[in-house]
Amino acid sequence: TIKENKETSKGTAVVIGGGLVGALCVCILASRGYTVTMYEKRSDLRKSAFTRGRSINLALSHRGRKALKLIGLETKVLEGAIPMKGRLLHCKRGNTAAVLYDPVNKQNIYSVGRNYLNQVLLDAAEKYEGTTLLFSHKLQSVNLMENTITLWNEKTNENITVTADLIIGADGAFSCMRNYMQKQLLFSYSQKYIEHGYLELSIPRERGDKMEKNHLHIWPRGTFMMIALPNQDGSWTVTLFMPFEKFHSLTTQAELLTFFSDIFPDSLDLIGKKELVETYFSNEPSPLLSVKCSQFHMGDKFLIIGDAAHAMVPFYGQGMNAGFEDCAYLNKILDQTKDNIKDAIEIFTKTRKDDVHVICDLALYNYTEMCDLVTTRTFKIRKCIDNILLKLMPDTWMPLYHSVSFSHMRYRDCIENRHWQDWILKNVKFACFILLFMILIAIIWEYLSDAIFEQNISYESTVIKQCSLRNQ
Ligand code: FAD
User: Fold this and answer.
1) Where are the transmembrane segments (predicted)?
2) Which of 160, 250, 392, 433 is most buried as measured by Cβ atoms within 10 A of its Cβ?
3) Residue 283: which domain range?
4) What is the CA(445)–ligand 1 centre distance, in A?
5) Is the ipTM of this complex over 0.95?
6) Is residue 34 one of the residues assigned to a domain?
């Protein structure tokens, strides 16, 4: 049993996973007055020099910022982040075009280092009274009947069994906690791997200044793409997203270099041929998956959040943001239920499910947009119309990307809003066609009636002439 800080505690909580979402959750629960113990299977990243895990940097947007603000960390995180005002598209010939995210209100998303963010959160978590952060502790099993969990302490090679008032699984896309919940009756679950994987490359600091600052760079190539996000030290993290088949078809240095000089010519000198070959052949591309669950809670104390509850492909830059929003949302429900944990976790499932399912789907859709649609005329026209309408009616017309990345509108409402906008634009287009058609008919009518009128006149004048001739 977790020891309770009796003087101050509202109750005990356990958080499994000390990644981005787990660490933030510890802070939020501790700030509410819970006695929190966090168990992370890996060693403390603040004490190891090695950068590990997925994506070195991430795009932080409004939802994530709002959650960080709750515990007073927004400013600190943004200090170490780089604003990105839009996408910079690189075409095959090497020329570029900028597409601002928000030309109207000039809002940015932020590139932030995963390790930096995790460190800031762990440092903050540690400072709360009553929190204990335990590393090298791996969740082994969950006993949902007896409300206990068993963890393996890697250092002592011992198992410990613990319980608490609230047990949260923030243990990522391959969550052990979710594995146990999945086996329960009526828990539906789906997991989808896409055919594309990703590989991280890098543009070193020395050549980083050749890249246009404050943008998320994209090399859209129809069915695949490459992106680059800036790092604080001037370097860029480049991520190549491509079908596994394509990754595996490039087996020699020559093939790889020819492929890059044909497809991403302007990136070759920036990444460097030698570095590209080294990184490409010493790393395997990683898979991307999307996970949906029918519920996030079990019994009266188990809850999963973040990637454990809704892993998504990274193309909307919302995985971490949605996970952070989970923490802020849980905080709000605990407020509403006056810390009645059973009610709070039930409400969490009921009211959060649709939203996270929507963002999982949108993230999949955005891959097509980033690879292909961004370069099409229809996309550019729509973006232009959206921006004009946003400027004219900021309270009524919020474009989809805008509502997802720069607002706190529920994800479900973002997509409904988009459907409503599509409906309006479709009908306006239809009305314009009808109007044009009517104008055309009117012009033809005008022309025809003039012609008939002239014909009548000439007929009448012929008749008159003939009559007057006859009279003569
Ligand atoms: P994780 O970060 O996976 O953390 C889980 C933690 O739990 C880990 O520390 C792990 O060691 C620990 N753990 C796992 N199992 C156990 C166990 N059995 N016992 C104890 N501990 C355990 N999101 C964005 O918002 N913006 C982006 O730009 C963005 N870009 C991305 C790019 C890529 C290539 C990828 C793959 C993802 C990206 N994401 C992005 C998504 C984001 O990385 C995740 O949504 C986010 O990391 C989820 O955080 P989490 O804490 O839920 O899970």
Assistant:
1) 13-34, 428-448
2) 250
3) 11-366
4) 67
5) yes
6) yes
